[in-house]
Design goal:
Layout lengths: L4 E5 L18 E7 L6 H20 L6 E7 L5 H23 L4 E6 L6 H12 L8 E5 H5 L3 H9 L1
Parallel strand pairs: 1-2, 2-3, 3-4, 4-5
């Protein structure tokens, strides 16, 4: 089974060029948000929350979604503050989907400011998409954490 990933939001990550022989319904949403042009920590945090809300709305209308990855790029000056805020945003978004959509969807906030291998990111997303929901829960990660291991393992390590 191939993991089907739906690419939405800002165009920060190119979509894969190879298409599956038999398309499947999306199991994972990658919502990307470019926060580099936002000025100041507060505005950046608000922009991240707005992206989370938009991703939630899409996820809510797609009952087959099991994983939501909200990836973002930000200015280096605000990244430390975003890393402190991201776990709370992931937990809140995970809880909102559970309460309002009535299903368990893993939520991962992913800082891709240092992304240097989009192909590997595609592999990680497809790997995650083949997993059932409930294995990653809610996590906040950065690109370095998933370079050497799966999103699931990195999320579990982050949780522990």
């Amino acid at each position: 089974m191939t993991g089907a990933v739906l690419f939405l939001g800002d165009l920060l990550v190119p979509q894969p060029t190879r298409k599956p022989a038999q398309p499947e319904p999306a199991r994972t949403i990658l919502w990307t948000s470019d926060l580099r042009d936002t000025t100041g920590g507060r505005a950046t945090r608000l922009a991240l929350k707005a992206a989370a809300h938009a991703a939630f709305e899409v996820c809510r209308t797609r009952p087959g979604i099991r994983h939501l990855v909200l990836a973002y790029r930000a200015d280096s000056a605000v990244i430390p503050a975003l890393h402190r805020r991201a776990p709370a945003v992931a937990i809140r978004l995970h809880a909102e989907i559970e309460q309002q959509a009535g299903r368990d969807v893993d939520v991962v906030l992913l800082d891709i400011s240092d992304l240097d291998d989009p192909g590997l990111l595609h592999e990680r997303l497809e790997e995650l998409s083949r997993q059932p929901a409930g294995l990653a829960g809610a996590a906040a990660l950065d690109w370095r954490e998933i370079r050497e291991e799966s999103i699931r393992h990195a999320a579990n390590s982050d949780y522990i």
